Amino acid sequence: MKQSHLFTKTRREAPKDEVSKNAQLLIRAGFIHKEMAGVYSFLPLGLRTLNKIVGIIREEINVIGGEEVYLASLQDKKNWVPTNRWDDAVVDNWFKTHLKNGTELGLGFTHEEPLTAIMKDHIRSFRDLPRAVYQFQTKFRNEERAKSGIMRAREFLMKDLYSFNVDQKVHINFYEQAKQAYVKIFERIGLGAKTYITFASGGSFAKYSHEFQTLTEAGEDTIYIHEGKKIAVNKEVLNDEVLKDLGISRSDLVEKKASEVGNIFSLGTKFSDALGLVFKDVDGINKPVIMGCYGIGPGRVMGTIAEVYSDEKGLIWPESVAPFIVHLIALSNKKAVEGVEDQVKKVADEIYAKFIKRGVEILYDDRDATAGEKFSDSDLIGIPTRYVVSEKTIANGEVEMKDRKTGKVEMVKISDFK
Ligand code: ATP
Ligand code: MG
């Protein structure tokens, strides 16, 4: 893509009311637009990165048998009354609205209830199980504090997967598969080394749930990490019993701030009992389906990456989620003698065409801007590899290659571009 075609502009300052580093950087680089506190729109660069994260998650969830759906946001009260979650005193983050005739509706903050209701139409016997159904869908939550940028939004994309199994044993088997899929996802996204499987409260059907917590000062959670075992315990459940269960001692744990990028949860029969999702087992007896839920917030993941991989100059994307892999910059020299400027453009155009032909995702800064502007924009946007074509480099038949992460610079022969 040519940068002259990109409608977004970078900016020196983020909005004054934006306190989080991730949103400040992402707004300044033109990845997102702040509509209001906790509400952000995704612009071309931001959408590319978000879609990369979504793509990685989708691939790994498909590997474990996920079937993708897209459920409605508007929620019918009838599915939520049986689980007692329609009540604002029970769920304090509902956004609700009503039809012209006065009927109350909710904007989905999660989808256990409507999906359980859907599955009632499709699951009859043990032959219809197991199932794993997931979506990427916008959730609405009236979050009390929205000071963490896109890490805690009031409207945000969630990957939510739900599993349906005949008994606890097969459920646990799938739960472990999902856990491993999550490990792979965060490795591929570039957060593997900083992400800990964290023991958290399990609700009424399991002793623990598992959170995927990425270490960052910007995180809202406090966890206690065990470096040796690469596991952690959420502060909320840290006690002698947990330490004993995990075979670790308090003195081996280090307190850290972290961001919950994903979590997996055993739901037991909570939703199937309430909504009547049963199946006829081999013995002919109706039994409630055993469920689990598995969430990841691609926006929170993106915000966490921005927090973890950035410096004073801007963002530093891991290659797997970068909006583009290569940033090609042509430096025209206004004061140069006639013809020289065209030469820089000619070489840059040719290199651009070669990358495009090879299918490399490349952003080509072909704008009429100063070298200073181009470099600072490039540092801010944070594409992994940058090539600079200037009058000086082409004089030696070369272009300059710079690694955004290490800052390492190398000269590459123009004839090496194939
Ligand atoms: P938290 O404890 O941070 O409030 P949660 O436990 O309520 O989150 P879930 O309901 O399980 O989160 O949501 C699944 C995933 O969705 C989370 O792991 C997180 O990645 C993401 N998520 C949750 N709330 C938000 C939010 N307000 N903004 C962005 N992403 C979110
Ligand atoms: Mg949580």
Descriptive account of the structure:
The chain is of the alpha+beta class. It folds into two domains: 11-314, BirA Bifunctional Protein, domain 2 (2-Layer Sandwich), CATH 3.30.930; 326-416, Anticodon-binding domain (Rossmann fold, 3-Layer(aba) Sandwich). The chain contains eleven helices and 23 strands. The chain has helices at residues 21-28, 44-63, 77-80, 112-120, 168-189, 240-246, 270-275, 298-308, 340-357, 371-381, 391-395, and strands spanning 32-36, 39-42, 67-68, 74-76, 95-98, 104-107, 131-140, 155-165, 195-201, 208-215, 221-226, 231-234, 254-268, 278-280, 286-288, 290-296, 310-311, 314-315, 326-330, 362-365, 385-389, 398-403, 409-413. The strands form six sheets. A five-stranded mixed barrel has the order 9-10-13-11-12. A five-stranded mixed sheet has the order 20-19-21-22-23, sandwiched between helices. A three-stranded antiparallel sheet has the order 4-6-5. Strand 1 and strand 2 form a beta hairpin. Helix 2 (44-63) runs antiparallel to helix 5. The model has no long low-confidence stretch (mean pLDDT 96). Bound molecules: adenosine-5'-triphosphate and magnesium ion (MG). The site of adenosine-5'-triphosphate has 16 residues, from strand 8, strand 13, strand 16 and helix 8. Residues 260, 263 line the site of magnesium ion.
